[in-house]
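Quick sanity check, Oligopeptide ABC transporter, periplasmic oligopeptide-binding protein OppA:
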Amino acid sequence: MSDNLLATRDLLAKRLDRRTLVGSSAAGLFALSVVDGRLVAAGPGGKMLPVTLVQDGGSTILIGTLGEAFSLNPFAANESESFWRSKMLFDEFVRPDPATYAATPGLAASWEIDGLTFTFTIQPNATFSDGTDVTADDVKFTIEGILNPETASQQANKFTAIMGAPEFSGSGTSTAATPGATPFVGSDTGVSGIEVVDPKTLRITLFRPDASFLYNLRYVFVVPKAQLEGQPLNQTSTAPFFQNPIGAGPYVFQSWEVGADFVATANPTFWETGKPSIQSFTHRAITDSSTLANALQTGEIDGSLYAAPTLQDQLEAVGTLDIVVPPFNSPNGTVFNCRVAPFDDVEVRRAFAMAVDVESYVADSLLGLGQAGLGPIAPASWAYDTTLTPIPYDPEGARAIIEAKGLTGQTFEIITNAGNILREDWCIRFQSDLQAVGVNITFTPIEYATVVERMTVTFDYQMEAGDFAGVTADPNDLFDQFHSTGAGNSTGFSTPELDALLEEAREILDQEASKPIWSQIQQILQDAVPMHWAWYRPFIYVISNEYTGYTLSNLEGGIFRTLPDMTMTAPAATV
């Protein structure tokens, strides 16, 4: 056996696991050997499988995720896993900087701003993975698809400042941007404020200021008009495109076994020359954070954002894993469905929050890794109000309200995504503390995609342990979550006063000038308790030290948000 073949065998033996032998139930069922000068894997029953090496430049990565994505349709994306996969397959029209969230070029190479008019130049060499050009027509089609009420996209509100968008979406009427100006006229056939100047130039005119307009263009995952024109774009669409999508992102869809592996390979026509370096990725759903940690220890997966943080010491002891600790996002806690009794009553919501000993949960379950939460905005945000005060732990006060409302002895349900140990622990604490004040709580862990559907589509829940309300990057996301017209209003809570403040805040371009309004918004939400923002969830981002070039980010994807920029320090091998 040659030295090269010996080295190859040893490398494969080291990396052999469930990701490299498709169809195997365990890596230990296979052994590597050489037959007639060829490297083969000997499987159960002596079956010989030829080994195919992925050569230098053909590196791969297997990323473990705690919950399955909701959809492969970018118009229906409404949670972190779907957004990240959409970014990989379609790219973003404008990319937020992973650390500062400032607008940076994506498929839009550059833009010029003249008052309320934005003129975008599309990357000159941007093509879809089938080789066809990405054009301004495609971008216009995508934005109009988001705004179309038949699509029912949860991102539609992010683009209602575009002239003609309210008429097109049926949400209102555009007005002239300045006194005496001639307003655009909306129509049923398109948004008049979106103008195709030439194949690579798009002009968008707003009828009012929008502080988040450039940031929100990250949700424009451009699709080819030629493939989808005339077809439904909503989440129930049966258009063949959504089974095998074509995008202009760094990766091309290969397969998706729901609840298991999502696989994509490098897009050979990607507009960023030389990227991605890592030639394929697998996104594997492993619905338990302790199991994710074990998979990292054994090398079954190369990285994850969702390993149980309480197992950090064991992961560090492996010696081949890098661990990155990000800042806190907006808090987790208890989300209430304010549409249904008794949670349509603020006193009941407050009583349930008062009944829970948050500090004990933090001490017992977070083990010094997390903290008690406060309000709907992440503490590192420029808009965070440091003067907020937490809801006090007051079981006797809670009991008095519960008795006065006639709820003693009644039973209510809280749901959360199965396998998220910290959220499951919160449910157990919640159940115990509510029982102590006279209320019975059933605790139901379910698969993540089902949680998403119940929280964002059917609203079929009473309480949920998670973070479906609150923001980390852009405070204007609270508009979608709490405005009476918000497509992402999972709680169902809104008031005319809050509507007015949210509308005012999104039109103020100066952050300092808008801070007092954001303080009022946070105080209203803290007092109304549509969610008990109770605790900051600690994360550890874990990745094999074979990979470099990642960037810490609290946006979807975390350190894998910049996967196209990452490299692998040693060639991978698959069989």
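Posting the structure with no commentary besides this: The CA atoms of residues 56 and 571 lie 5 Å apart.
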